[in-house]
Structures are given as structure tokens and as C-alpha cells.
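Q: I have two molecules that I believe assemble together. Could you output C-alpha cells for the complex as a whole instead of separate predictions?
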Amino acid sequence: MAKSKNVAVNRRGFLKGAATAAAGAAAMASPLPSSEAAAAQQTGAASAAAAQVPAPSPVQLERDAGSARPPATAGNTRAAVRPGSDLMVQVLRDLGIEYVAANPGSSFEGLQESIINYGHPPNVKPEFITALHEESAVTMAHGYGKATGKPMCALLHGTIGIQHAAMSIYQAYYDKTPALLIAGRDLGFIAAHSANDMAGMVRSFTKWDATPKTLEESLIAIQRAYNEAISPPNGPTMVVIDIDLQKEEAGSLKVPAYRPPSISGVDPGTAREIAKGLVEAQNPRLNVGRLRTPEGVQLAVQLAELVGASTATSATQGPMSFPQRHPLSGPGANTTYDYTLGLEQGGGTVSLIGPSLSTLLSRDTTNIGFGGIAPGVSRAGGGGRGGRGGAATGRTIDVDAEASLPAIIDAVRSQMSPDKQRTIQDRSAKHAAANQTARVDALTRALEQRRAGWDASPVSTARIYAELWPLIMNEDWILASPSNFSGGHNSQLWDHNKPYSYLGGQGAGGMGYGAPACVGAALAAKERKQIVVNVQCDGDLNYAPGVLWTAQHHQLPMLTIMHNNRAWHQELMFVEYMCGVRGRGTDRGHIGTSLRDPFIDYRMMAAAYGMAGEGPITDPLKLAPAFKRGLASVKKGQPYMIDVITQPR
Amino acid sequence: MSTKSFSLMFASLTLVTGTAALAQAPAPTAKPVTTLTSPVTGNAVSGKKLYYDHACYSCHGFNGETGARAFVPNWPANLATERSFLAFLRGRANVAPVQPSTSMPNYPVESLSDAQAKDVYAYIRSFTSTPPPLEKIPTMTQILAAAQRPYKK
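A: Yes, here they are, computed for all two components at once.
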């Protein structure tokens, strides 16, 4: 467990201390260096308490010294014939977990060994993904979850792993993204790595957690955690599993049968009422926000086409919404709507909005979510996180939209008549024509605006998005990096037609998200023959750049284009402003906000992690050829980085 | 690290309200103009260094064409003349609230002298905007052509 080598309470120090304690009086008599003796005197009570902690057993010491051997059993030299962790991995397989990301830790060594060795073939669905930081591991799960609507798993080592991961758990929680977290606990090892209630550290921003006491409970808890993660409001869940349970002989214990969650939709009467509103309206409309899964998106498309409704989409803001270029997507031929159905979006005649994070406030023991999720105090006006955007003009029903759609579609079909179908076909054709005209007009205006600085050096961010679009528009792509800091040009220049086209923002506005989220999306993309685009802010990458190694090691289809403005640019502007407000000049605003002296060479950084790439590029004419080379590499399963020196925004 | 909305903080250069200093300046034209002909007395070379040192580029881009507050080629009234520019910088020092709601940093004479401000103005005035027309940019014509194609599920 490499991570313990450099901490104050490290393995070597622990063993040394343990051996000293075990030696009893002889050790007590050993002379201490004066500073240690003084410290020991000053910590009297604590030392006394520590003395109560039982010394590790000889078996533990043997194991930690690397000389432990499995107990001899007749005809079998393995520690357990059927380790409990094998059953845990079987549960993950049955749940369809494709990947388990982790930075290795001894508290889940049993589980890790099972992932890489159990089954035929081993290390496949789930595959162990090597992360260089727990924050990266969980953010990978965050990106994967947004791209697929399904949880990915991350393993965390004890208290320290959970704390490393806390920021990314927080973001996934605010982003209502499913993730399955398993934290290992080893009560017999380093005390600082264990706690009675480890999940308590992140309880305020996880949806559910458990610390099972038996192997069977562990298996059930993993299944429950999965179900809780994918039930609205989606979010990260955690199971804390003791190392002993991972290593326990399972004997004849069977993996419990899995039962998927039952997610309630509208009742049949309400479904009929909504269907009637849509079918009888002269000009119905759908407002589609972020649904839970790609299946939900398909259902929304089905409903829109059935009733000929023009549709508003949030596909340019995040995943799992209505296809942006679908003929019905847009204002339509007539913008006077007489019945609007909101699907995870407010403002409709009827709006179906699933449970928000505020339903989890009883878990918010630290009140960390007070600014965003508590009812009535949201500064965001209730939009965004809770999914309640839009004016409250109609009736809001607190029910999951996606789970409601099948019943509504069935009710629409039962109320449909040939006459109405003809009317709907005619209306749909008019909407399609009007939306296409509006789309081309808007695109033309957007392109006109983005001519500004077209030939500028450093390169304009608009040109990055514009040059890239023709090269990927016929590919199956995912823009997995947030685009807000790089101008958000994709929202006007690109078509977001898949549930995963754009994965949106960080969740809680935390930095260090882009690259690991893209790696998570690229894990999903690899199996599905997709490519991931990562327009990567330089400041954001430097939080945990080791994730580039993960992308290379696992040969993920990820094209990284550096939006290298050599600063935490947002903060530079804030500090500049503050300097100005105080009238003290802005010429030192760069201190603490700029990444210069020296500039960071991202091409070299990528190379250090084994990733191909090029740059820095300052000439905009060199962009497209570089992008073509990068995409060619990515299509072969080799990630690629292009460092582009850009205008600030 | 904060990611609060930049748009809330950075109002347009033209939002400045009346102050004594500004009142002394010639009335700016009401609308942005695309060509400026007013005299320039500062040193653009010195102004370039000041533009970088004071990170003016952070909001206005390295050439005034990009960024949160681009001003080329549609020059706002505050940049119409050297005098209006100075009045704008000085006026800002008196009107900006502690809580950011408008955006342009304030530049009292203690932080940027008149001579320095004129140098910055001279550098800004050297900015030109000559992007090719849309139809001369193959990438853009390709994007527009693709938008005409039927939607494929």
C-alpha cells in the first residue's frame, strides 16, 4: 500500500511501534530521543489512551511483514476456497457494472484480488481501472454515470480514501449522478485509516450508505446501493465493507437474487388526464429537462412524435435530454402553446418532476447543502440541482417523469383517432419546417459572431469548437468536458442529438473535474465505439493530471484539446476587479491566479504519462490538421493531447 | 474555487453612470461605432506593456475581439476618444460598489497615470478586426451546409 509510506502514521512506523509495544518493558526502557521524550510527556493522556490499544497479533505482524501464508488445508493452499469477495464481484457482474476504478488500498485487497482473478474471464465486467487519485476514481464514475445513466463503481481505502474522494462525491451528488462506492475498512491495521462510521464523513452528500456486518449483508447492501443510486434522485451511494468479510470463506452461501428498483410514475388517472391535454391541444408542447437514462430520452421522443409537440430541450446544457436537431425540437411553427408538459422541467401546464435532493435533507448532518438543496433557501431559484427550472405557471406533480412516460404514451395511443393523427402529421411537418429555418438562422448568426478573432493568435476558443465540429459531426461523440469556461460555443455550433452528446458542468462547480470525467466517459465510449472530446482548461487539469496516465494505460478514445490560457482565468478576472475596486492597481492581479514563470508544457506532461500529442499551437491554421491527427489516434484507441494556447475566453 | 457566474459581475463598459469626472467629458456617442478617428497622443508600445501588465486581456482578449467584453470592431462610446476613455477609467473609481455588480476595474490616477492611460488607449486603438467573411471560411460553410441536411436518428 504505497500511499501509507509518506504519512505520519505509516505502515513502517506502525510496525516499529507495534513491535516496540509487544516487547513490553524492554521497549519502555529504551532511550527515546529528547524531542520524542518531550512529546511523549506532553501528550500524557493521549499516550495513556494509546497504551490501551492492543498490540497487533503475531499473525498480523507476519502478514504485514509479507511472510504470512495461507493456512494449510487438505488439498488446497488458498486462504479461502470461495472468498467472500468473489461473491461481491459476482454481484457487481450481475448488476452490469463494467468498471471498478480505484487507487489501490489494503482495506479492499480481498475485493481487488477477486476483481482481477475471479471468473472466466477474470477482470472483465467489471474491469479494474487504475486510478492515481481517489478523486479521479470517483469523478470517472461521475463522467461514466452521466454518459450512460448507469453507475460505475469506485473503491476507496478507509478514511483516507474517502476523504480524498469527498470532493468528487460531492459533485456527483449535486449533479444527481449515480455512482456505486465501496469503501474498504480494516479495523486491525492502521488506526487512522479506520473509523466506526466511515460513511458518516460523506453522509451529507451521499444518497444512501450501509456498513454491513456479515458477508450476506454485504452482498445485499451492494445490490441495495445500486438500486438507490439509480432511483430518483440519482446519486452516489456507499457500502463500507470490512476486510474480514472480503476474505471470509463463503462456503455454500449463494448470491442473493437481484430485484431492480420499482420507480413510480404518475397514476393511471393522471396519465389519462395528461394524454387528453396533449391529444386535444391545438398546439401542445414538451419541455424536456434532464431525464435519468437514454431509455427516458427515447420515450420523450416517442411522445413528442405521437402528439406532434414542438419541444424544448436542455441537451445543450447537459445529458439525457431531447435531441437538439430532432425536427420537433425548437419553438415550432406556432409559439402559442395551449398545453405544455414539463418532463423534469418546470413551467408546464403540468410538470412532472422527480424527487429533488431536498428529499435527502435528513442525511445532511453537516448542513453542507444548505445553500443549494434545502427547500426555500436556494439562491438558484429552485432551478438546476433540484431540476425545477422555469416559472411555476402550472401544476407540478412530484413524480419521476421517465417512469411516467410509458403510461402517458399508452394513454395517448388509446385516445388517438385517425383524424387526430392527420392533424398531428400536418402540425409536425409545419413544426419541422419552422424549426429548421430557425435553426439555420440561429446558426448563421452564431457563426457570424464567431468570426471575431478568427485569425487571432493566441487562438480564439470559438475557432477550436468551430474547427472541431466538421471533423466529428459524423462520428458518435461525447463532449464530456464542461464548456462554460471555454466559451460554451458547442451549444450554438454543434448538434447535441444523443443522450450523451454533452455531459454538462461539474456538478458543484469544483475544479479538477474535466479530465477524470472525460476518462470516465471514455470508459463508456470504448465499449460503444464512441469518441470523447475533452476541451480541457489548464487550471482544471493540474488538480490531478495523473488521470492522463489512466487514459493511456487503458487505451481510451479521448481527444484532449487544451484550452490553455495559462491562468485560473475566472479568478484572475475576480482579483482584477477587486484590485480595481480598492483602487490599488491591477498590475499584480496575476499573483496567485496565473500559471506563468514558467509556463506549463502540456505536451510534455502528456508525454510523461505516455500519451501522444502535439503543441503548443498558437497559429490557428494549424488547428484542423492537428485535430485530424488527434482523431485518427483516438479512433485507434490511443488518447491524444493537443496543447492550444488560447485567448482567455 | 469559485465558479460564480461571470456574467453577473461584468456589466458592459457602457453601463457607467454619470459622475463628476464623466460629466466633464464630451458626451459620448450613443451607439458603438466601427471606426474611430479621434486623435491619439499616447505611446502604443508602452501601452502594449501596460495592457499585458494590468491583464486587460483577461476580459477583452489579446486583441479586443474576444473574451467576456470584446470591443472591436463595435467600439463602445467610452472608447470613442482619449478623453472619454480617461473619464471612464476615473469615473469607475467612484461608482463601483464593494459588491461586484459592475465589472470594469477602477483606475484612479494613483494606479494608472493619465500618461499611462493614454498609452493604453493608443495601444487599444491599434486593434483592428478583419476576419474573413463567413463564406470565405471553409469550416463555417461546411457547418452551415451540414445544418441543411436532414436529421438522422
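A: One point stands out. Confidence is low (pLDDT under 50) at residues 1-29, 97-101 of chain B.
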